[in-house]
Amino acid sequence: MRAPALLLALTLFLVIDEASLELQYMVIFPAVIHHFQEEKLCIHFSSVTEDVHLAVTLEVETWSQTVVEKDSEEVFFLHVLIHSSDNVLFEGYKKVLVMPQKSIILIQTDKAFYKPGETGEE
User: Where would one find the signal peptide in this protein (predicted)?
Assistant: First the structure.
């Protein structure tokens, strides 16, 4: 309930402030990213009068081949850089938690309940 209201408020803020012709942008991304799952990032620009270049990178202080070890969580930094041909319009870093994917084991039996001593169909 809160998330849609917040997004609506942010959208209204952008619409109300459209009168100024300055470049306005909004970057939305999850605070927690799950390893081996596709995550999405939303970037909204308004009042763009020239070509802009956008770069989004995921950075960590000491980078290695293994990003996430089994059953470990790491904090990375999401680096967003927006610049036009002559100057940097926005550059920011935000923390993002990368969590391992949780394994779920599902066992399907031939009936809903077993009495003590019963075995499954063979």
Answer: 1-21
Question: How far is residue 32 from each of residues 58, 96, 102, measured CA to CA in Å?
Answer: 13, 6, 14
- CA nearest to 7, candidates 25, 28, 24, 23: 28
Cβ contacts of 118 within 8 Å, gap of 6 or more: none
User: What's the CATH number of domain 2-99, 2.60.40, 1.20.120, 2.30.30, 1.10.3470?
Assistant: 2.60.40
Contact 29, 78 (CB under 8 A): yes
Q: What is the rounded CA–CA span in Å between residue 17 and residue 7?
A: 15
Q: Collapsing DSSP states into helix, strand and coil, what is residue 91?
A: strand
Give domain limits for the chain: 2-99
Q: What is the block-wise mean pLDDT of the chain (122 residues), using blocks of 10 residues?
A: 51 49 73 75 74 71 44 62 70 76 75 76 58
In sequence order, the β-bridge partners of residue 78 are 58, 94
**What are the φ and ψ backbone dihedral angles of 49, each rounded to 5 degrees?**
-110, -10
